Amino acid sequence: MTVRLGFIGGGFIAEFHARALASVRGVEIAGLMSRTRPEALAESIRAQALGDAVIYDTVEELAANVDVPVLLNPNFARLSAMESIVRAVEAGARLEAIACEKPLARNLGEARAMMEMAERIGVQTVFLENQLHVPAIQAARGQLASVTEAMGPLGLARAAEEHAGPHNAWFWDPTQQGGGVLSDMGCHSIAVAWYLLTPQGKAVDHLQAERVTASVGLLKWGRPRWRQELRDRFGVDYEKTPAEDFATGTITFRDPESGYRSMAQFTVSWMYDKQGLRLLIDGLGPGYALEANSLRSPLEIFIGDTAAASIQDAELALEKSTASQGLLAVQPNEPDLYGYVDQFRDLVAAVRDRRPPLLDWSYGREIVRLTMASYMSAERGATVDLTDAQTRAELEAYVPLIQQGRGREVL
Ligand SMILES: NC(=O)c1ccc[n+]([C@@H]2O[C@H](COP(=O)([O-])OP(=O)(O)OC[C@H]3O[C@@H](n4cnc5c(N)ncnc54)[C@H](O)[C@@H]3O)[C@@H](O)[C@H]2O)c1
């Protein structure tokens, strides 16, 4: 069977996923729907024979003509797209699954609404968190399987994701996106660190989060010169509605079977003025360790000043590249490097074999819970105890001040 995907949203990540799908069998991009008609994307998909990429005007029409709608639209537009999918299914559309990019939602209230709608139509959900599918992470787990068996699982996992800031205005508006870099990228680093700590063969949510301690800062984009740049480039005012450009924190997990405790440490920033996107992930276990750095490549390119004028597109080298000359870090296959290819292989296999994917929306909701606990900790300057029933109940209704547009009270 060929799984027919329908992309909702035709921006940056949709283009990346189209590149990834060139390396996946048994799948096609059958339909597209976006706020502005994604003609160029459709053309490029058809030119590569990746699918018919029929452009639909509504989510309902798209859902009636594909097997798996894939939510790749901005965070603030997820719920309404999901409502349209529900309407389509209630009108007779037959879906094999629904996939959603990270984050599943901006807060737990929205995550609950997403899950309730998915449950109402009884469709398998797939959560697109690529970092668990990163080949280096999967290889590390495979390579260390017998070592962790003998020595015990990792005690500490550290995950960082950093670049110089997102490419579109809505990411910078905390009321639309859900916050700053913690909402946007903290979800990745929390997820991959939790996964690395998880013993082999156990479910992705096996380890129970007990305590979360986090801090947020506005360290670059709150300064006058950079605030002005945000106003000029994106029409966003960080004097009125700032969001964090740096966040860090620790999460303590407990293994309910062994009683072992382990810690995840995450660091994310939009102020990494180095080559471009860097994922830096390491893990320490008793007697062993691992480390992955996405900026390391076997390929180095140097472009001197005299040749620099001929450079067209710095992002050819690396996502969010900040330089087009000098010694460049170049990653020739980013869709594979970041796990997008294997994420879609898993989706396709799950649909074909009628088995659950590695990650579903209930896992996505747990990541939202940990992100919300991090905001709560940073806001209150205190550790959040997730074993406390009252705190858990509070989190269900919690919307971070930064997300409410009240970042000035925090940053
Ligand atoms: N996994 C990753 O590493 C990764 C990377 C980037 C983005 N993302 C996620 O993907 C999502 C999209 O991000 P992006 O970078 O592609 O954003 P983008 O701004 O580049 O693209 C968003 C697209 O959605 C369209 N759109 C806007 N409102 C819409 C609506 N109401 N209905 C349908 N389409 C609408 C826009 O026209 C645009 O084509 C976000 O949730 C983001 O968190 C994930």
Order of helices and strands: EHEHEHEHEHEHHEHHHEHEEEEEEHHHEH
Q: Low-confidence stretches at least 5 residues in length (pLDDT < 50)?
A: none
Structural class: alpha/beta
Strands, count: 15
Could you name the CATH class of the largest domain?
A: Alpha Beta
Q: What is the CATH homologous superfamily assignment of the largest domain?
A: Dihydrodipicolinate Reductase, domain 2
Small molecules bound in the structure, each named once: nicotinamide-adenine-dinucleotide
Question: Helix tally?
Answer: 15
Rg from alpha-carbon coordinates = 21 Å
Q: Main beta sheet: strand number and arrangement? A: 7 strands, mixed
Q: How would you write the strand order of the largest sheet? A: 12-11-7-10-9-8-15
Q: Please, how many domains?
A: 2
- Summed over residues and divided by their number, the pLDDT gives a mean of 96
CATH topology title of the largest domain: Dihydrodipicolinate Reductase, domain 2
Beta-strand share of residues = 15-25%
- The first-to-last residue Cα distance is 52 Å
Describe what this molecule looks like in 3D.
This protein has helices spanning 12-21, 39-47, 59-63, 78-90, 108-121, 135-143, 145-151, 169-172, 174-177, 181-197, 224-234, 334-337, 340-353, 361-380, 389-397, and strands at 3-8, 27-33, 54-55, 68-71, 97-101, 124-128, 156-162, 208-217, 246-254, 261-269, 278-285, 288-293, 300-303, 326-329, 384-385. With 411 residues, the chain is of the alpha/beta class. It has two domains: 3-128, NAD(P)-binding Rossmann-like Domain (Rossmann fold); 134-297 and 367-406, 2-Layer Sandwich (Dihydrodipicolinate Reductase, domain 2). It is 36% helix and 21% strand. The chain binds nicotinamide-adenine-dinucleotide (NAD). Nicotinamide-adenine-dinucleotide (NAD) is lined by residues 8-14, 34-36, 72-75, 77, 81, 101-102, 130, 168.
